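User: quick one
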Amino acid sequence: MSELKGACIVGQSGGPTSVINSSVYGVIDTALKNPAITRVFGAEHGIVGVLNDRLFDMSAEDPKELELLKYTPSSALGSCRYKMKDPDVDDTDYKRILEIFKKYDVRYFFYNGGNDSMDTCNKISKYMQKVGYECRVMGVPKTIDNDLFGTDHCPGFASAAKYIATSCMEVYQDARVYDTGIVCIVEIMGRHAGWLAAAAALATYKGAGPDLIYLPEVDFDMEQFLTDVERIYKEKGNCMVAVSEGIHYADGRFVSEAKTSATDGFGHAQLGGLAALLANAAKERTGAKVRGIELSLLQRCGAHLASKTDIEESYMSGAEAVKNAVAGVTDKMVGFKCTREGGKYTCKPELLNLTDVANTEKKVPLEWINKTHDGIEQGFIDYALPLIQGEPDLPKEDSLPRFARLKKVIVKE
Amino acid sequence: MSELKGACIVGQSGGPTSVINSSVYGVIDTALKNPAITRVFGAEHGIVGVLNDRLFDMSAEDPKELELLKYTPSSALGSCRYKMKDPDVDDTDYKRILEIFKKYDVRYFFYNGGNDSMDTCNKISKYMQKVGYECRVMGVPKTIDNDLFGTDHCPGFASAAKYIATSCMEVYQDARVYDTGIVCIVEIMGRHAGWLAAAAALATYKGAGPDLIYLPEVDFDMEQFLTDVERIYKEKGNCMVAVSEGIHYADGRFVSEAKTSATDGFGHAQLGGLAALLANAAKERTGAKVRGIELSLLQRCGAHLASKTDIEESYMSGAEAVKNAVAGVTDKMVGFKCTREGGKYTCKPELLNLTDVANTEKKVPLEWINKTHDGIEQGFIDYALPLIQGEPDLPKEDSLPRFARLKKVIVKE
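Assistant: Done. Structure below.
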């Protein structure tokens, strides 16, 4: 494959994670050092920044501040939830993107996000192929939801999982401290896939976690839930429950549905308030004191509890995207192929077709959910435990996090 | 003062903290090594365990497990919210306590808790004096609320403050990531004193914290709040707010009051749901996307973010209680006397009269609250910053916390 010289754009999209900036640092760091890549731009708020001609000159940043991106949560370049239209119906945005790519001679496009972002990435890749504009397009995965197809796991999941497991272990200590017990419900993110709620089982595995765990992969039965909570509360004097925000009844209605009707840009229902709803139901049934705890944004930005493994793999996925693109690869996402034989964990990059990845959701395998649909099997523990390993040496200032401070110099020409 | 030989009881009471077990370890570790103290008992669920003759033999524990108490959140011995009656009205409980003290020859009583617990401790101390039973009674402070009278600060506050500041810094990154802004409300514990909500100002001091902070020391004005949120949201495109759960209107009603009517054992209203309430009000006013985040139990059990300074001072307060009691002191609480001259922080124990401490609440000084009552002045930063310093070397297993595992052997005789 002939060498392709030109500029690159990297953008971030969708809900942020604790380590998505480590991936973007992997892209930027590798691209800045590669002679084939003439300029390195960051798109402000993902594809929206490309459409609005709002690009940051990443070479203007202090390298030391860029390196701090490894430990800085949230999307440093800014994110978006912009849904690209089908180009056969309306190609306005695509023409605009092509115009910007031509303006800056952009020959490399790296898009860092989850399911919807890989859809955007795929559509742009296919459009550039169709119009014959040579640009290598690579997806760099991230999502705490861990639901991207074809990869062992997704950057961002492990750090959120570690936050959830640690927080559940701490809440477990606290929520059984009085002579009168309580029922404690912890609400965890995950609309359609229960990977994050399953991570609460890591706390249970360590002897200090939820008695009951409910995932959206199976139907939720309120009566069965209340019966089980009552039984455990009577037996143990306390009951701790972890639920995915996306749990639903057999007819498909979200359990939290009655609480909110707001939707986000993709038409997804905005969930929340489920912990309080279930806590109130448990209170009515048992008469116990109850606590509903929603981990909310904390679980996806808790960088102080990031997994070192996750930080390193996130960087690697960004770096691999650049290396492969320069080597001639396009239209792929960097996934992970892992082995766990004999307790030894290995992780290697694997290139997946963007077409296969876009909009396909990977759920928790049913064999990792117990028969009564209220707990997690050992298979998941063996899968997840290697991912959360390692304590990063977080930079601190006055014992508080020292996050990257970027200048974000907008390119004007 | 003549040497007093006999057994000791240590108990924990009230809401737990990340470091209350470090205080109790300070008591146990020091008492086990002191020849004047013949036996060391832990009371199961505080004074309730004394009344029920449920005492743990602390000498039966593995010393290594005991040492892990320094890093184990919540009250390892179990806590209670038991309100002692006025002994002049009903002395039943006091007679029972005396009976248990005589049964085990208890000559030292250490009670580890906050305001209500110091009231219990004081009543027991005065009763023992009145009936002429020689027993040295010492209060060992704890409360994330930081509202105990006479002491520079309370063990437990700093670790909760560090958790709050760090979490606010992380949420700040996350809650401004999209091209469309949001209004984010963080609800923080503190019924009558705003020390913990003020800790959110440490994040603002680091350039990544709330725009507005509301404490219960001053009256809350909903209309002014909505006007300010709207102004900041229009100016910056985002607005972050920290509120104490105890904020109230000028007539004294809690802002959250309409949401709940439950009360705890002391007749305090159980607050909660305030973040959602304010977020909804902000949404109605601004039309912005909103997030209400309640830090809930997480902030008081987040031992993984404990302050090393807090852990060490907590241990010291427990150790000092024992040393002073053996030396003849009684009827006191171990407070802290600190200096911060020239940026150099020192902390020394200071003995305070239980009578003065019991049921007196220390609030945030009004000069540390800004004139518009929606922010915190530098005086608080200078006060709080030294307290949160230092990263403890937390014991981990599989990158998850390794908490103390006590045998809790009940004494039978």
